Amino acid sequence: MPDQEKIHQLFADCVAGNLSEEDSGLMEQLLSTDEGIRKQWTEYMQAFEDTSSRQFLQKIDADRAWLSVSKRIVEEQATVPRQRSTWMFAAAALVLLTIGGLGYYFSNMPTGAKSEKVVTRSDVVLKLWNGEQYNLLDSTQGTALIQKAATGFQASSEESQRPGVQQDAFSTISVPATMDYHLVLPDGSEVWLNSSSVLQIPASFQTDSREVFLIGEAYFKVANQADAPFTVHTDSLDIQVLGTEFNVKTFDGRQTVASLFSGAVEAWVGDDRIQLSPGHEAVASADGLLSREFDRATVAAWRTGVYYFDNESLERLLPVLERWYGVQIRIADPSLATTNLSGAIHKSDSVTVFLENLKTTANIRYQISDKLVLLSSATNK
């Protein structure tokens, strides 16, 4: 019986259309004799049935994808017996990866098997205005601690004059790489913080003045209070709402993006202001502030552990992998940085699943040493 790593690799090779004749026979045998593996395979393929995956697949150029997948299927049919080709065809037709204009798609899907991550668990740290620190992952009093973080600073005018006491005191929630965290603010607003993100809450956060400061990425579901606007500040963009749902992303140093899902948002940079309607996002960059439409199915999918990317360069994908898996990734061959990819990364998978798919479909080798991953071209020996 193959180990779970081998089974996982068989699944990945199958959906990529890269099974050897020997492995094809092995997988057919496993599926016909082992109920547990059949269940894993079913769960693996059902990952394509969710709405966000279907909507994302519709964005891929069907003509180019079909030509590429058809060519691979024809080649496989020449060497694989007909009875084996049926389920291989279904897998190949569902999975397409775009690499430099070629139409393939790969998706790292969660399976019933356990994936080993190459990182250890870190803390989600709450640091109060008074210096106290708590690990929110280990605390059963998370809500009470957030309440204290946002409303616990009640310094009198006499106290505010003492050395070391500041009127503008902040509490900070820091989410490390590999983690994410959901919290509820005193006004009932909900915040989902992505990996490697920081949220600052004024210790004087009150219902008549709701302001927070964000570094990284977060999804906000703001409680509606007509007399108390809710404001999110970032380094390059400010967003103000009354009651709404929106995503804010500041990871990319070149731009900050606020994507509106419901309600209304006003975003501004200096004197430049934009009013957003649902389905539109504000983008702040060196070129100014603009509004554009966005894909609802993909922008906030990170909350469910999925990151979608469409014709995105490998160079811009690396920070996502580093945040989600807690590794450092370096490219030995600079020409690989501009390799364009489309697909999805599932946080529940090991980083090696992505790397193996990259190796299979883009001909990119990888080496892992502790938490450092080095990528190089397979043609460079």
CATH hierarchy: architecture of the largest domain: Sandwich
CATH fold node name of the largest domain: Jelly Rolls
Name the overall outline. Answer: globular
Mean of all residue-level pLDDT scores: 75
The number of domains: 3
Q: Would you identify the regions where 5 or more consecutive residues have pLDDT less than 50? A: 47-121, 155-166
Report the structural category: alpha+beta
Radius of gyration of CA atoms, rounded to a whole number? 24 Å
| Helix coverage percent | 25-40%
CATH class of the largest domain: Mainly Beta
Which percent range describes the beta-strand content? 25-35%
What's the arrangement of secondary structure elements?
Layout: H1 4-15, H2 21-33, H3 35-46, H4 51-57, H5 62-77, H6 82-94, E1 97-99, E2 102-104, E3 106-107, E4 125-127, E5 133-135, H7 142-151, H8 157-160, E6 170-175, E7 181-184, E8 190-193, E9 197-202, E10 210-215, E11 217-221, E12 230-233, E13 238-241, E14 245-249, E15 255-262, E16 265-269, E17 272-276, E18 280-285, E19 288-293, H9 296-299, E20 306-313, H10 314-325, E21 328-331, E22 340-346, H11 351-362, E23 364-369, E24 372-377
